[in-house]
Amino acid sequence: MAIAQAFSAQRHWLLINELLIMYEIKIVELKSNQNKEYKEFFIRGLIEEEDNFRMTPTDDIGLIFPTKDTQDSFTLGAYIDNKLVGVASFERDGAKREKLRHKGILFRMYVTKELQGKNIGKDLIINLIERVRLLDDIEQINLTVIANNPRAIHVYEKFGFRTFASEENAVKWKGKYFTENQMVLKLKEQD
Q: What residue ranges define each of the domains in the chain, with the CATH number in brackets?
């Protein structure tokens, strides 16, 4: 089954200095040939939100684009006025393991700090879930989130993700430990 490039445009209103401004968010699939733009954006997120990621900018050096430009391994980007303002990636969990092919993982989700809470993350998740639902054999989407990131957890819960496990001291950064929650969204009823 061929899946067209993900594309969505949503209009939202934003109040800035008592001015009501309408802006359009375009969600498109980022391809591996856009790695430079992606990496520059994502590394900024790793720096600005270092306590909310399990990796550092140094960890990202030398890594290739996070997904493979396929139906079950893709990255979405959110743009406002042709500027990348958010990303989210999905990959089948068991790409090379038959017993795990029924699930995938949402990862590397980031919205630029100044636009968090403005529906960009919501639009990325909506588009990602819609695209994954087109894959008949994916039954669930998993993700991990740092437990002290209640805003992200709340957004995921709005879409039906639920926490099924927590790992204490999962991440250690600058002498501080972080608990990591594992969440799941069931797309299909399971026996």
A: 7-138 (3.40.630.30)
What dihedral do alpha carbons 140, 142, 148, 154 form, nearest 10°? -30
> Which of 98, 100, 154, 106 lies closest to 130, judged by CA?
106
Strand partners, 16: 19
3-state secondary structure the chain: CCCCCCEEEEEEEEEECCEEEEEEEEEEEECHHHHHHHHHHHHHHHHHCHHHCCCCHHHHCCCCCCCCCECCEEEEEEEECCEEEEEEEEEECCCCCHHHCCEEEEEEEEECHHHCCCCHHHHHHHHHHHHHHCCCCCCEEEEEEECCCHHHHHHHHHCCCEEEEEEEEEEEECCEEEEEEEEEEECCCCC
Three-state helix/strand/coil letters over 59-84: HHCCCCCCCCCECCEEEEEEEECCEE
**Is residue 160 within 8 Å of residue 140, measured between CB atoms?**
no
Distance CA 3, CA 24 (A): 24
Note the pLDDT tens digit of each residue in 43-88. 999 999 999 999 999 998 888 999 999 999 999 999 999 999 999 9
